[in-house]
Amino acid sequence: MVRLVQPIGRRGIAHRRWTEAQSAGTLWPVRPIDITTFPSELALKWDNGGESFIPLETLRRFCPCAACMGETDVMGQVYKAPARPYTDHSFVLTGVSEVGGYGLAPRWGDGHATGIYTWDYLRRLAEAQ
User: Fold this and answer.
1) Per-residue pLDDT tens for 76-86?
2) CATH architecture of the domain with residue range 32-127
């Protein structure tokens, strides 16, 4: 058995979480095997056979980067850049790059390219539609 974390104490919290993740089958996230962009949506085919379709406008409006969503400091204060108005180019996808093995980074027509969307975040966005 491979351990990702050291248990805290004897059979501590970390060990319980590891065991729960193993038994729930959530240890390895579902990953896309195909990503296709269309003029108005992003389509993802997942390795478990599922498919997700996310409108590009939704994808952009829910960009998880610090400039769009803000950053939280240790005291819980959220710091956010001044809002930038969207233009027609804001919702045009000009490219997509995979980031590590955990997500993707879209490039938008207005030059915005700092958001990293994890596979889990993309699945949640799609499910919220």
Assistant:
1) 888 888 888 99
2) 2-Layer Sandwich (3.30)
